[in-house]
């Protein structure tokens, strides 16, 4: 019960900190929020209009009063109306969320399918020719800019070969190029993570003793090597999903994939404060939820974590 209470308090305090950071960051802009509001709405910027806009937006109050008023609305899922698109921020985010979620899940599956088998083989064959090739390709993938890779994939598979759509999401195969671009650098990172975890377990005393006694590798791999390597692999992969949901800005811009990333870019370009705040709060909430899920997964698969949790 104490552990659950600690997690709830940690979640609430984390959400509070994220809300404070979000509110403060959106206040540090080079433009007057009232003037920006009038400009986006194509209204005349006059002293009287500025005064009315400040009163309407609550800018004539102190920062503490503004924050408390805003945070109470946030708790009721009321982020206001977008200056630019003139729609509810919640409805705009909800409309784009599924697109980003679809892209993130597809990329996540691609990372798992590619990185885990290759990482396991590379970890079992350390310093072999295959391992050296994998490490070189992994380093190359991490060093490759996402926007450059996206344009190259479009040029090769869409323009030259005509196999896949250039952009948009109207066709079933439209997801292929964006998901490859988004996951490519992460595949290299997690091949290295899986390789390290497997090679470390392979060199552990209990595995070496078992191999000296003649225990076959096909038995040791699922029952000892992968089982003990799973916590670090699961932690890394769980953190990846948040990045896929929040770090798709460039990919969505390159492929005209109308998701949260492109919505956030539009909000920043126009300094649309309510929309920026809504997106930032969602990204922070996703991070907190993912952190809680990561701890739950580790508690489930790692007996040492369960033991520490029971002792506390």
Descriptive keywords:
312 residues, mainly alpha, MetI-like fold, 2 domains, 14 helices, 0% strand, flat, transport, transmembrane helix, transmembrane, BPD_transp_1_N, cell membrane
Cα radius of gyration in angstroms? 24 Å
- Termini gap: 10 Å
The CATH homologous superfamily of the largest domain is named MetI-like
Number of helices: 14
Provide the number of structural domains. 2
Strand percent estimate: under 5%
Query: What do the pLDDT scores average to?
Result: 83
CATH topology of the largest domain: MetI-like fold
Largest sheet: none
* The level-1 CATH class of the largest domain: Mainly Alpha
Poorly predicted parts? none
Which percent range fits the helix content? over 70%
Total number of beta strands: 0
Secondary-structure element sequence? HHHHHHHHHHHHHH
By CATH, the architecture of the largest domain is named Orthogonal Bundle
Supply the helix-strand structural class. mainly alpha
Instruction: Estimate the global geometry from the Cα principal axes.
Output: flat
Briefly characterize the structure.
The protein is 78% helix and 0% strand. It has 312 residues and is mainly α.
Describe what this molecule looks like in 3D.
With 312 residues, the chain is mostly helical. It has two domains: 1-76; 90-309, MetI-like (MetI-like fold, Orthogonal Bundle), CATH 1.10.3720. The protein is 78% helix and 0% strand. It is built from 14 helices and no strands. The chain has helices at 2-27, 33-40, 47-57, 63-75, 89-124, 129-143, 146-160, 176-202, 205-212, 217-246, 249-254, 260-269, 273-301, 303-311. It is flat and about 85 Å long. The model has no long low-confidence stretch (mean pLDDT 83).
């Amino acid at each position: 019960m104490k552990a659950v209470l600690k997690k709830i308090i940690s979640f609430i305090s984390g959400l509070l900190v994220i809300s404070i950071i979000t509110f403060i960051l959106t206040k540090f802009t080079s433009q007057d929020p009232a003037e920006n509001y009038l400009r986006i709405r194509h209204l005349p910027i006059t002293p009287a209009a500025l005064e009315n806009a400040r009163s309407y937006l609550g800018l004539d109050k102190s920062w503490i009063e503004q924050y408390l008023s805003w945070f109470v609305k946030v708790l009721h899922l009321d982020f206001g109306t977008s200056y630019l698109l003139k729609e509810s921020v919640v409805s705009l985010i909800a409309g784009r969320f599924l697109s980003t979620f679809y892209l993130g899940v597809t990329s996540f599956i691609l990372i798992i399918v590619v990185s885990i088998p290759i990482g396991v083989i590379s970890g079992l064959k350390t310093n072999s020719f295959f391992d050296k090739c994998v490490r070189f390709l992994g380093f190359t993938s991490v060093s490759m800019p996402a926007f450059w890779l996206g344009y190259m994939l479009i040029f090769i598979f869409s323009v030259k070969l005509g196999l896949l759509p250039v952009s948009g999401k109207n066709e079933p195969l439209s997801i292929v190029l964006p998901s490859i671009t988004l996951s490519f650098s992460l595949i290299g990172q997690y091949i290295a993570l899986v390789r390290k975890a497997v090679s470390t377990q392979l060199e552990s005393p209990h595995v070496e003793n078992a191999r000296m006694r003649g225990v076959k590798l096909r038995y040791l791999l699922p029952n000892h090597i992968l089982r003990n390597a799973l916590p670090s692999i699961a932690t890394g992969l769980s953190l990846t999903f948040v990045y896929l949901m929040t770090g798709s800005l460039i990919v969505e811009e390159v492929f005209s994939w109308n998701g949260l990333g492109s919505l956030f870019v539009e909000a920043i370009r126009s300094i649309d404060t309510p929309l920026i705040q809504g997106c930032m709060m969602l990204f922070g909430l996703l991070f907190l939820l993912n952190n809680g899920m990561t701890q739950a997964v580790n508690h489930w698969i790692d007996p040492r974590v369960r033991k520490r949790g029971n002792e506390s």
